[in-house]
Amino acid sequence: MPSQLSPAVVYDPTGGLGSREVAARAPGPGEVEIDVRAAGVCHSDLHIVTGDWPTDRPLVLGHEAAGVVTATGSGVASVRPGDHVVLSWFAPCRRCRKCVAGQAWLCTGTQAVANTLPDGTTPFTGADGEPLWPYLGLGAFTRRLVVPESAAVKVPAELPFGIGALLGCSITTGVGAVVNTAQVRPGESAVVVGTGGVGLSVVMGLRLAGADPIVAVDLSAERLAVARRFGATHTLDGAGTDVAAWCQEHLGGVDYAFEAIGSPRVVETLPAMLTSGGAAVLVGMAATDATGSFNLFDLADQGKRILGCNYGSSIGERDIPRLARLYLAGRLPLDDLIGRTRPLSEAAAAFDDLRSHTGVRTILEP
Ligand SMILES: NC(=O)c1ccc[n+]([C@@H]2O[C@H](COP(=O)([O-])OP(=O)(O)OC[C@H]3O[C@@H](n4cnc5c(N)ncnc54)[C@H](O)[C@@H]3O)[C@@H](O)[C@H]2O)c1
Ligand SMILES: [Zn+2]
Ligand SMILES: [Zn+2]
């Protein structure tokens, strides 16, 4: 039986962004029902709204969320009703070669990126019984979800839901980019271009790893001030500075250059920021058909590397509880990542916050 209808934020390829009433069916085998308590608004939701990532079907948006388990289907062993969970938007299949090798972030069997549950279905129906599809297998901008067990990661009950929500995407991606993808060592230097929710999490991860210096670049002075609080030793205005020239002149090139925007034009400038042997880390996600060009002689001659970074090369069930514990121990200042908290009915304004770079991360509460 579907649950009662409740409001959801839906992107419809014919009608655009809007509010719709949705119901979710009961959890089947291997599935978990979630009562969503907080959901962050990430640029990966905006990529759908802007058409960077085209969709042919209506999607319930939202993929950075935390909540409480309300029911479980048969065979579910890792969570039970009442558990607090952070949702993973890349629910691994746990069976493919990459999962078996311990590389869940590279899973080839997940259906999350097809915006369905693992069996290709959706749990959501609209007011007229029409299907609505879960963005990244979640669709967290509504109250009630049904997700695969591997998408529900148990966290301590004392973790605030807003922090849990951000652990679902920006924090795990940004800190993971540093500690998992790049494996930055104490004393190595780094630049982070783009300091939204994801880039600020990269800055935090760099401080945690002991990187120095840490150069943050953004167009927003407000965001750069936050970056300083999170550990940036230098901040640069991206509009008025040749960042590569600055890095070469002041630091002899950096060991790591992180891009957390998704701009092909910015990505193309990363290798010139590096010292020999350095690595460019592509954390931002561009439009699906974006391409870029690099000086190939420089890359080969200087042994520079380009690293892709899906979900901070993280294993959700290992890394999300680990980051939650670091926060609870006072080692990660995650409270400062939360900007406004708005009700779900203000989703359009929340997207405006993101577009205008107002505050840091806006949280929606269903
Ligand atoms: N790799 C992953 O698994 C993963 C996970 C989550 C998000 N993402 C992607 O990361 C990117 C960032 O997400 P977000 O939610 O932090 O976005 P955001 O919009 O909150 O932040 C982007 C920041 O980039 C800044 N910026 C824009 N153009 C710039 C320029 N030319 N120079 C310097 N700064 C500039 C903006 O001022 C803003 O602060 C998006 O592309 C998102 O899709 C990737
Ligand atoms: Zn995200
Ligand atoms: Zn897999």
Q: How does this model look, in words?
A:
It comes from Streptomyces tagetis. It holds the Pfam family ADH_N. Residues 16-364 form the Enoyl reductase (ER) domain. The protein has 366 residues and is an alpha/beta fold. It folds into 2 domains: 6-154 and 333-365, Alpha-Beta Complex (Quinone Oxidoreductase, Chain A, domain 1); 171-311, NAD(P)-binding Rossmann-like Domain (Rossmann fold), CATH 3.40.50. The chain contains 11 helices and 18 strands. Helix 4 (170-182) crosses helix 5 and helix 5 runs parallel beside helix 6. Bound molecules: nicotinamide-adenine-dinucleotide (NAD) and zinc ion (ZN) (2 copies). One zinc ion binds at residues 42, 44, 63-64, 169.
The level-1 CATH class of the largest domain: Alpha Beta
Count of beta strands: 18
Q: Looking at the structure, what is the overall shape? A: globular
Structural domain count: 2
Largest sheet: 7 strands, mixed
- What are the secondary-structure elements, in order, as H or E? EEEHEEEHEEEEHHEHEHEHEHEHEHEHE
Question: What is the CA-atom radius of gyration, in angstroms?
Answer: 20 Å
Q: With helices defined by DSSP (H or I, 4 residues minimum), what is the helix count?
A: 11
Give the low-pLDDT segments.
Answer: none
